[in-house]
Amino acid sequence: MFMGHQKGRNTKENIQRNFGMPTPHGYRKALRMMYYADHHGFPIITFIDTPGAFADLKSEELGQGEAIAHNLRTMFGLKVPIVSIVIGEGGSGGALAIGCANKLLMLENAVFYVASPEACAAILWKTAKASPKAAEKLKITATELSKLQIADGIIPEPLGGAHADPSWTSQQIKTAVVEAMDELMKMDTQELLNHRMRKFRKLGGFQEGIPIDSKRKVNMKKKEEPVAQRGEELEGEIEKLKEQILKAKQSSTKAPELGLNEMIVKLKKEVDIEFSEAVKSVGLKDRLVMLREEFAKARNSQGQIANSGLKEKIEKLKDEFDQSLSTAPNYSSLQYKLDMLKEITKAKNLAEKNEKAAFLRQEINNKFKEVMEQPGIKEKIEALRGEIGDTSGDLENEMKEKVMQVKKEIELELTDVLKSLSLDVEAVESKTKYPINERSLSDFKVKVNVFNEEIKKKIDDAINSPDLKSKVEMLKLEIAKAEKTPDLESKNQIEALEQQIKQRIAEAINSPELIEKHEKLKMEISKAIESSRRSDGSLKKEDQKDDNANVDGSRVEINLGANRSFA
């Protein structure tokens, strides 16, 4: 028994055939023919090509919905094989009314849908312009429906579509229908009914009792869809902001402060939304609302909580929320946004700190130049330079005192200037309090090297002495013997020989001559350090590691050890 929709090939035929949209009479006629085929044992083949059932007022009055429902129920109970072929489009219940078959085949370019892409776009996005997006989401093509196991087979079409070569397409349809019928005819009545029932029962492929991934749970909730979209948009904006900050660093320009502030505000809003969703998902929303009301009532005029019991409730709720937060479906999203917020806030704080430090450094440099340009200071420095230029060799003590005096005056002037900038000036003690001049240092290095050579010579003489040399040879023999046949006696012998050799070398090093030279060298170094300390007077402060003032908030550590620039 063959039955199907017919649209027509031109406008006149389309109007005559109602554009392939059946009325209730058509479905009842098809139902009558199905009963006839079932009574006589004829297999049923249906051809589907309709945008949907006709939905005018008269069709509704004649029971369009009832007619479709009656067909659906009846087709599941027919005891003959049923094969349906979608040759064009199969829309909504108008297609299903003759499409509840054992096998559903589709032409390569046919479509099968619950609603047209235009109608779906108008419902979901309020505009038909979103129809391409709707078509993609609906998965209406033969290939996609075959993957979803809604369609049981795809019938190939010639290049350009079925209408390009109807004869060849008909042969392909015939081949596919014969193959399907050969398979179904082997089944008895009960198998046919079970086969048809299982085909439609498996659609959707869901399983119960299997835990769902938390990420999928979040995506299944309609309210969280915009949150996910906001997360993706924020990620893109953050990447752009990072690129701007990197470009600003490379070009030594100011970081985009406005962009950082806007991003922090956005991220704070996102984090608040995520926390609200997390509270709701872990079942603490009602308790939080009640606590907020109690908190609003319990606050005094200074905004403090006088009720200690309420404080305990808040702490208890906070602990419960912290413990259950990791089980919230949006925990990963919340953690990700918190990390982004920390990163952006850190970048903003660093940018502000660098900006303040650069400004303060410039101010200090300007003030330092002003101090050095003062007439009195300038004249004293020029006079000192002239006197030092006339002096050959080491500076006399009197000249050193003059240098120290001018240095102290500059330090006092600079300290007053820095204090006028509301900065604290702190002297830093030197780690090397008693420096030694370079000439004395080189002399001591030579003496130490000579002393080391004498120690080395004493050790060599002791080792090359006949007595110690024989003990070393005995030690080598004992070690070689112990490798072959190790025993306790050999081990004791080796330890005894090693102890005797070490003792002889120690005796050579601890000779009275070496000890006297060592003490003498120590005394010379101590005297040099003491002499250097006295010549430096009160100079006991440490030079800083670099030439800049160390700026930290409102506190500055000033270099008192040398006359250096802050730049």
Describe the structure.
- The protein has 567 residues and is an alpha/beta fold.
- It is built from 22 helices and nine strands.
- It has helices spanning 11-16, 24-40, 57-61, 64-75, 92-96, 117-124, 131-138, 142-147, 166-185, 189-201, 214-220, 225-250, 257-281, 285-298, 308-324, 331-372, 375-390, 397-420, 438-463, 466-484, 488-509, 512-535, and strands at 2-4, 44-50, 82-91, 103-107, 111-113, 153-155, 424-426, 550-552, 555-557.
- The strands form two sheets. Strands 1, 2, 3, 4, 5 and 6 form a six-stranded parallel sheet that branches.
- The longest helix is centred in the middle third of the chain and has 42 residues, at 331-372.
- The protein is elongated, with a radius of gyration of 48 Å.
- The model is unreliable at 221-229, 428-436 and 536-567 (pLDDT under 50).
Total number of beta strands:
9
Outline the low-pLDDT stretches.
221-229, 428-436, 536-567
Outline type: elongated
* Termini Cα gap: 98 Å
Main beta-sheet strand count, sense and barrel state? 6 strands, parallel
Could you tell me the radius of gyration in angstroms?
Answer: 48 Å
Strand coverage percent = 5-15%
Helical content (DSSP H or I, runs of 4+): 55-70%
Mean pLDDT: 78
| Number of discrete helical segments | 22
The secondary-structure class comes to alpha/beta
